[in-house]
C-alpha cells in the first residue's frame, strides 16, 4: 500500500494522543496525579493536540477534504465512519475533564466521571482505528490477529512514555511509571517482532489460477489491464525493496523500542533534571520510531488486486 505521510502521521499521533488521554482520564481520578494547573494544562494540551493534529492530517489523504463530514453517515457498516463518530464524541468528556482539572483544580466528582468516559472513548476510538485495517480481507498482512492488539499496545506504550515525560518535567515522576513504560515498550517490541515474523511467513492462497477457477497450468495475462500508471497501481501497488525494508525495520526497532528503554533505564539512576531530559528524549525518539514503524505497516502490505497486474 502507498504509505501517504498524512495517514502515517495520523495513526502515530492519534495513537499516542489517545494513549495519553486514556491514562490521564483514569490515573487522575485515582489520585496518582495531583490536580495541578500546569500538569493538567500540558498533559491534556499534549493529548488533545496530538489527537486534533492527527485527525486533521488524515483529511490530507482525501481527494475532496471538504466532504470529510460525509464519512460520519456510514457508521452502521464502516469502521472508518465509526472511528470518526467515536473520535468526535470523545472530545466532549475530554473537554469537560480538562476544564474541571485545569480551571477548577478538581479531579473528583463529575470531573472524575468525565475522565473515565474520556478513557473509554479513547480506547474505543483506537479499537475502531485498528479495525479499519484488521477488517480488510484482501490485505493479508492486516487481516490478522496481530493488528488490533498491536494498535492498543502501541497506543498504551506511547501514551505511557509521554505521560512519564510530562510528570518528570514537573518533577512529579515516580519509579512506577518509568518501570511501566519500560515494560510496555518491551511488550510492544515483542509484539512487533511477532507481527513481522507472522507476515514474513504468510502464504497467500489466492493466485491467478484460483481467481479464475482454471487449473492444469499457469494462468497468465495476455494484456495488462492498463497501459499506464493509475490509481490502483499508485495506492495498492507500492513496492519496497527487501534490503530497504530490513534497514527500516532496524531503524524502527532502535528508535521506537531500544533507545527509549535505554533512556528510561538511565533516568532511574539520575536525579532531576537529568531524568526529566532523558524522559523527554525517550518520548521524542519513540514518536520518531513509530512514524517509521507505521510507514512500514503500510508499505509492506500487499493487496490481492495486484494479481491482475502480475505482481
Task: Provide a descriptive summary of the structure in words.
Helices cover 67% and strands 0% of the residues. By secondary structure, the chain is mostly helical. The mean pLDDT is 85. The longest helix has 28 residues. It has ten helices and no strands. The chain is globular and about 70 Å long. Helix 2 packs antiparallel against helix 3, helix 3 runs antiparallel to helix 4 and helix 6 packs antiparallel against helix 9. The protein has a single domain, classed as Formate dehydrogenase/DMSO reductase fold.
Give a topology summary.
Elements: H1 5-27, H2 37-58, H3 79-102, H4 109-134, H5 147-169, H6 176-200, H7 208-212, H8 231-236, H9 242-269, H10 274-299
Helix pairs in contact: 1-2, 1-4, 1-5, 1-10, 2-3, 2-5, 3-4, 4-5, 5-6, 5-10, 6-9, 9-10
Amino acid at each position: 500500500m502507498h504509505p501517504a505521510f498524512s495517514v502515517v502521521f495520523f495513526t502515530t499521533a492519534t495513537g499516542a494522543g489517545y494513549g495519553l488521554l486514556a491514562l490521564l482520564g483514569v490515573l487522575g481520578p485515582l489520585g496518582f496525579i495531583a490536580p495541578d494547573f500546569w500538569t493538567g494544562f500540558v498533559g491534556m494540551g499534549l493529548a488533545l493536540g496530538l489527537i486534533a493534529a492527527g485527525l486533521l492530517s488524515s483529511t490530507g489523504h482525501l481527494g475532496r477534504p471538504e466532504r470529510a463530514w460525509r464519512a460520519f453517515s456510514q457508521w452502521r457498516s464502516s469502521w472508518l465512519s465509526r472511528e470518526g463518530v467515536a473520535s468526535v464524541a470523545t472530545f466532549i468528556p475530554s473537554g469537560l475533564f480538562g476544564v474541571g482539572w485545569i480551571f477548577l483544580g478538581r479531579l473528583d466528582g463529575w470531573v472524575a466521571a468525565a475522565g473515565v468516559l474520556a478513557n473509554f472513548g479513547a480506547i474505543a476510538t483506537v479499537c475502531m482505528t485498528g479495525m479499519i485495517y484488521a477488517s480488510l480481507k484482501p490485505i493479508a498482512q492486516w487481516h490478522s490477529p496481530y493488528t488490533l492488539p498491536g494498535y492498543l499496545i502501541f497506543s498504551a506504550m506511547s501514551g505511557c512514555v509521554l505521560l512519564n515525560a510530562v510528570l518528570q518535567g514537573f518533577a512529579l515522576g515516580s519509579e512506577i511509571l518509568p518501570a511501566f513504560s519500560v515494560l510496555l515498550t518491551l511488550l510492544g517490541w515483542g509484539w512487533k517482532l511477532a507481527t513481522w515474523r507472522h507476515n514474513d511467513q504468510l502464504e497467500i492462497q489466492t493466485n491467478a489460477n484460483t481467481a479464475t477457477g482454471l487449473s492444469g497450468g499457469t494462468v497468465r495475462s495476455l494484456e495488462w489491464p492498463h497501459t499506464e500508471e493509475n490509481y490502483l497501481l499508485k495506492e495498492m501497488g507500492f513496492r519496497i525493496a527487501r534490503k530497504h525494508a530490513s534497514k527500516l525495520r532496524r531503524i524502527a526497532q532502535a528508535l521506537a523500542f531500544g533507545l527509549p528503554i535505554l533512556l528510561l533505564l538511565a533516568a532511574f539512576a539520575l536525579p532531576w533534571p537529568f531524568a526529566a531530559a532523558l524522559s523527554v528524549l525517550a518520548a521524542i525518539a519513540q514518536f520518531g520510531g513509530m512514524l517509521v514503524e507505521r510507514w512500514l505497516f503500510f508499505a509492506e502490505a500487499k493487496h490481492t488486486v495486484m494479481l491482475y497486474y502480475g505482481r
